[in-house]
Design a protein that fits this description.
Layout (H helix, E strand, L loop, with lengths): L3 H10 L15 H28 L31 H15 L1 H15 L8 H29 L8 H34 L22 H17 L9 H5 L30 H4 L5 E5 L2 E5 L1 H6 L3 E5 L12 E7 H7 L9 E5 L8 E4 L1 H5 L4 E6 L2 E2 L9 E3 L12 E6 L3
Helix pairs in contact: 2-3, 2-4, 2-6, 3-7, 4-5, 4-7, 5-6
Length: about 425
């Protein structure tokens, strides 16, 4: 009778928990260390620029903008978002999204490089080891959650209307806490490993190196080059959505890439069309009035009356949370601070609540801070690039504010309420 023990031993050797199961010669502490150091810099940048994006939305200004309720101690980073330089949000959010996309191959390679550790038996050798495994679970799960939800929001805009912001926000705190703990434990080891043996040299006690590696088909340098090439491809095919010209035409993997949506003065990128939010010509025709409220009472203005007021111009971009932006467009209209003066605030304008005609979709109402209203470049725009606004760009009137996220530049404006928000 054949003993079952050899069969059981042979079966165990074929399981992912067996040391000899993972045979790639590329795996090893030096390879993982390089990827980890890249992620340390990149994810830190993502976290900082992500917090800046939440600050730009003015989440402590009014509930209408606040998509992360009950912040508590997590609201320590909030501050009045500035209006200068006017390209600030275009830079910070462009970096946030572009770096996030470019890091995808690095993250996947890092997870591949440490996957044998996820199957190590026993699952926990001590309480400290159990806590380390739990932190790794939070780290891997948090990374996948943050990157997947972020990429989905870029590609399928408004997929999580009203819920993406708290999901991504709180998920980022959980992930980054685990990431910091892991970095504090592993970064010194990674630096020592690279200093000791370089990329290909032996590292004493290398727990990631296979005890029985297969014949090499790719060196570690080659594997890193492959990861870098993947990141470069993603960079070239996505970064152009923040620029005009040839770079935008190369951005074929992200929305707002490739060709411009039209030609002429109104031919630049659009975040949402009039049809998508239920705006019709009946809403924006001769029956349209702008209602302005404040201490002076309720005032109403037709588009002709607004055009008869003193007109001002400003060259400002549109920059959205999905990372795309336009170059500076030449907007012309009535300054918000002049409308605030008509509403009863001639000296120091307060914030304003802006309401749109749109019938569906997020940010039908948005609040702007007092510093945004006071900036002379903040306009109720009536024209762009020398021509009336098109319906998709907000005709008959839209908000344009320097350094503000695109969704706060409300289109199809129906009402402005100055004062308490």
């Amino acid at each position: 009778m054949v003993s079952s023990r050899p069969r059981a031993a042979a079966l165990l050797e074929r399981l992912p928990s067996a040391p000899g199961f993972w045979r790639s010669p590329v795996r090893g502490v030096p390879f993982t260390a390089v990827l980890g150091l890249v992620l340390l810099a990149g994810i830190t940048l993502l976290f900082v620029t992500g917090l800046l994006s939440y600050a730009a939305y003015n989440p402590d200004l009014a509930p209408v903008n606040d998509k992360t309720p009950d912040k508590g101690l997590l609201g320590f980073y909030l501050f009045p978002w500035p209006t200068s330089p006017h390209w600030l949000y275009r830079l910070t959010q462009g970096l946030h999204v572009t770096v996030g996309i470019v890091l995808v191959p690095v993250l996947l390679a890092k997870l591949w490089s440490v996957v044998p550790r996820l199957f190590t038996l026993p699952p926990a050798r001590s309480l400290a080891h159990a806590l380390e495994r739990i932190s790794l679970l939070l780290l891997v799960g948090g990374a996948l959650f943050e990157f997947v939800t972020g990429l989905l929001n870029i590609q399928l805009e408004y997929l999580f209307p009203g819920s993406f912001y708290p999901l991504h926000f709180y998920g980022a705190w959980v992930f980054f806490a685990a990431f910091l703990a892991h970095a504090a434990l592993r970064t010194p080891q990674a630096v020592r490993a690279l200093r000791t043996g370089g990329l290909n040299g032996p590292v004493p006690g290398d727990v990631l190196e296979s005890p029985a590696p297969a014949a090499p088909t790719l060196s570690r340098r080659g594997a890193l080059a492959l990861v870098g090439a993947g990141s470069l491809v993603l960079l070239v095919t996505s970064v152009g959505r923040s620029f005009d010209g040839p770079l935008r035409r190369l951005a074929v993997l992200t929305p707002r890439g490739a060709a411009e949506p039209g030609s002429g003065p109104n031919g630049f990128q659009i975040n949402k069309t009039a049809a998508a939010v239920g705006i019709t010509t009946a809403d924006t025709g001769e029956g349209w009035w702008l209602t302005v409220s404040g201490p002076a009472g309720v005032l109403r203005f037709s588009r002709e009356q607004l055009l008869a007021m003193e007109q001002h111009s400003a060259a400002l971009p549109i920059a959205c949370v999905e990372g795309w932006s336009t170059s500076d467009q030449w907007w012309r209209g009535v300054r918000l601070r002049d409308l605030a003066a008509l509403a009863g605030y001639p000296d120091r304008p307060p914030g304003v609540m802006v309401e749109s005609l749109q019938r569906s979709g997020p940010f039908r109402r948005a609040a702007l801070r007092d510093n945004q209203v006071r900036d002379p470049r903040s306009l109720l725009a009536l024209r762009v690039n020398g021509e009336d606004l098109s319906p998709d760009h907000g005709y008959p009137a839209r908000i344009i504010v320097p350094a503000a996220p695109g969704v706060l530049n409300t289109k199809w404006v129906a009402r402005l309420t100055f004062g308490e928000l």
